[in-house]
Design goal:
It is globular and about 50 Å long. By secondary structure, the protein is of the alpha/beta class. A 7-stranded mixed sheet has the order 1-7-6-2-5-3-4, sandwiched between helices. It contains 10 helices and 7 strands. The chain has a single domain, classed as Glycerol-3-phosphate (1)-acyltransferase.
Length: 297
């Protein structure tokens, strides 16, 4: 009996040893998120970003007009597709369900896509959903990113950030002028732009955060809709290398929100922003079964 019990304890210990310990850096990020929420600093990233190097106008071809830009774009998307397929195959990225694809398919004009931002891979999720829509190969999906991710991110991610139809912001006034011109051109010709209107990435944060005005200003100026996307999470049975459960994503695509021509432009922006947030709030409360509250003091 003692030998059998010892054997059981040994097997249990071996099993426990195989489960990764929770990574200290992830624990620190979660603690930082709790602090930011308490202090109401919703638009600040919870993790340190690469130092920002100013983006000069001659360093970015926003519309990918040059042959060199188009060649790099083709190579980057080929690499990204293989990378995402590998994530899906090995279970590092789990898209459990997509709800509301018909809302994306129905939009004929250009549009702004908004999405909650909780993981560097959530842009891959939106891209994968876009490629499953009727718009794939007819329209392009551009993504607004921070300046430092474009100018100073290393390795594979850096190459993808620079070449997968990204629209980096910039502190350089001339570069930002070119950015704004590109946004107008993209929307007017009927393509889509993904904007993280929360303006911050909080790892595995399930609540919607307050939204900034930029995405809705672009929509109002160009008379195009905003398509609210909200991704919910559930713990998977598998544990990731960081010691935390891998998340299973459900992607909710809601009906497009159009500017109200009966309002002033300022009120149109406020109206679209508030309606987008209201949609996200409803999805959050319906899916998780709890009222949306914050710990803000």
């Amino acid at each position: 009996m003692n030998g059998r019990r010892a054997g059981k304890r040994t097997k249990r210990a071996e099993k426990e040893e195989k489960v990764p310990q929770k990574a200290p850096d992830r624990i620190a990020v979660l603690e930082r998120i709790q602090q930011l929420e308490r202090e109401g600093r919703f638009d600040e990233d919870a993790e340190d970003d690469p130092p920002t190097i100013p983006l000069e106008p001659d360093q970015i071809d926003y519309l990918r007009r040059s042959p060199a830009s188009r060649l790099r774009r083709k190579a980057a998307y080929s690499m990204a597709e293989r990378f995402v397929d590998k994530l899906l195959k090995d279970g590092s990225l789990v898209i459990k369900r997509v709800d509301g694809m018909e809302n994306l398919d129905a939009v004929k004009s250009g549009a702004i896509l908004t999405c909650n931002h909780f993981n560097p891979f959530d842009c891959f999720t939106v891209e994968k959903v876009f490629r499953s829509s009727v718009h794939y190969r007819k329209k392009k999906l551009f993504k607004v990113i921070r300046e430092g991710n474009y100018t100073n991110f290393p390795g594979l991610y850096g190459f993808l950030f620079r070449n997968c139809d990204t629209l980096p912001l910039s502190q350089n006034k001339k570069t930002m002028y070119n950015f704004l011109q590109a946004v107008d051109t993209i929307l007017q010709r009927g393509d889509f732009i993904l904007i993280y209107a929360e303006q911050s990435l909080w790892w595995n944060y399930r609540k919607p955060k307050p939204l900034k005005n930029g995405a809705f200003k672009f929509a109002v100026k160009n008379r195009v809709p905003v398509i609210p996307i909200f991704i919910t999470m559930e713990d998977c049975s598998r544990i990731g290398a960081d010691g935390f459960p891998i998340q299973e994503y459900t992607v909710f695509i809601e009906k497009p929100i159009y500017p109200d021509p009966g309002l002033t432009e300022r009120k149109q922006v406020d109206d679209m922003r508030d309606r987008n947030y209201g949609v996200w709030k409803r999805i959050y409360e319906d899916f998780y079964g709890v009222p949306l509250t914050y710990t803000t003091q």
